[in-house]
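Why does residue order matter? Because the sequence determines the fold. Keep that principle in mind as you read this record.
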Amino acid sequence: MTKSFNRLLFGTAGVPRSTPGTSTGEGISRVSELNLDCLEVEYVKGVKMGLDTARLVRKEAEKHKITLSVHAPYYVSLNSPYEGIRMTSQKHLLSSARLASEMGAHCVVFHPGYYGINKPEEAFETIRKGISEVVSILRSERNPVIMRAETMGKRTQFGSLEEILFLCQEVEGLQPCIDFSHLYARKGEANSYLHFYRILTKIAKKLGDEALQNMHIHISGSLFGDKGEIKHLNLAETDFRYDEWVQALKDFSVKGMVISESPDQETDAIMLKKLYYG
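Structure:
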């Protein structure tokens, strides 16, 4: 849902670990108790929520003034060599966006896919065509949810910063989800104030200054090797310079949502919010 942010919000990927129950509604209540601001609803294993539940989630989020986003299934693959898988991936994205609209969520984050046997430019064109069709259908339905292509942490995945920004330039209405941990893990480089400054500068240059006022950000610690990301870690367990990252966000007056994907997601979200607003 198109939304104008007046500050930077901090929250969790999915229901916080400390939540007594496991439902999204209980997670929203717990996020509010923790003095956090947002929650990303995880459809990563499939879009299994019904319409009635989505509407109840919306009421709970409005009650607690918690901003929502959605993460589409991990198995979306817009560059699959099989047409059936590409079409099914589009259906997963459409289902995610339709339920996101029902629950009042701001956006849907998705992983575009792998390069496979294709050259990067070939993968780009296939993915561009696939997501363009999804966005066009949602526009025809007057669905206001923003689709967001995520920067990815494995070198075999489509999703470098440059690829995602170019994709957003080519597909009207598409916006990025910037996962700073993925950007670090992908090449083992993006881990200093100067790197973060350059990333934010590039986003503004390619997509306009307004892109920094409406960001969706993922953050966590990351274990990675020669091929990129292996798994998420808590920030304190890694060498990620999150204090310099926070300073860069402050200096650019970034607004939008920061979603902690650490294993102990609420602890890192609370720590980052305190550091940012401290």
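The mean pLDDT is 96.
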